[in-house]
Amino acid sequence: MEGQAGVATGRRVLVAYATKYGSTAKVAETVAEELRAAGCEAEARSVSDAAPTAGFDAVVVGGPMILGWHKEAVKFVKARRDVLAAVPVAYFITAASLTDAGGDAVDGVPIVKDSWLANAPSRPEKLSYRQRYALPSHYLGDVLKATAPVRPRQAAFFAGALDLTKMNLFEKLFVMLLIGATPGDGRHWDAVREWARGLPAVLFGDAADSGS
Ligand SMILES: Cc1cc2nc3c(=O)[nH]c(=O)nc-3n(C[C@H](O)[C@H](O)[C@H](O)COP(=O)(O)O)c2cc1C
What we know:
Strand 1, helix 2 and strand 2 (41-46) form a beta-alpha-beta unit. The chain has one domain (2-204): Flavodoxin domain (Rossmann fold, 3-Layer(aba) Sandwich). By secondary structure, the chain is α/β, with parallel strands linked by helices. Helix 1 (2-8) crosses helix 8 (189-204) and helix 2 (23-37) crosses helix 8 (189-204). The protein has helices spanning 2-8, 23-37, 71-79, 81-84, 129-133, 136-147, 169-178, 189-204; strands spanning 12-17, 41-46, 58-64, 89-95, 98-99, 105-106, 109-113, 118-119, 154-159, 161-162, 184-185. The structure holds flavin mononucleotide (FMN).
């Protein structure tokens, strides 16, 4: 921990987030809070603030799955691809379902899965359409294609929150029938905080030598 605090000290990190119904904002703020506790100068900003990315030592981009990664998260990365291709980047994705058929990387990008979200299929060799849809390789594979050439050093999947009272009929049908989502607040702060505590090492590449 000591070594990690050392490399994190004074590093400026932007945690940019997109949200449709608000719940991802607090995930981003929690990530920023942990980064500050590790010694970074971190701030969480909505992508709709059009925050400048220049001047940051690293950028974390987060957003929910809303028929693909929130389009504002994708737009944010694409619009700043030159800056983001030149600094360490991490992504996080909030979601209502995730199939965990094994594997800890998608197209070479290491992934972290909130264990409350990840569902291990009983028959990995015969996944249903719904299970295949919620595979990390599907969710993140599309994100990586859409945001290339930016390449995150890591991507985390966290359980989000689903408030049916805020949704229109189409959205309700989609999340209940296709995603098979359970309504309610599924966010697990321990999972978010644990990931964020490890981020300085991931972003600033000191994991291997911080203790020596
Ligand atoms: C229209 C809509 C589409 C969604 N699509 C997906 C999806 O494809 N996969 C998934 O796991 N969750 C999906 N969700 C669930 C959201 O990702 C989840 O509720 C998230 O926490 C919402 O974040 P927000 O409150 O920041 O908008 C969807 C939710 C809505 C309303």
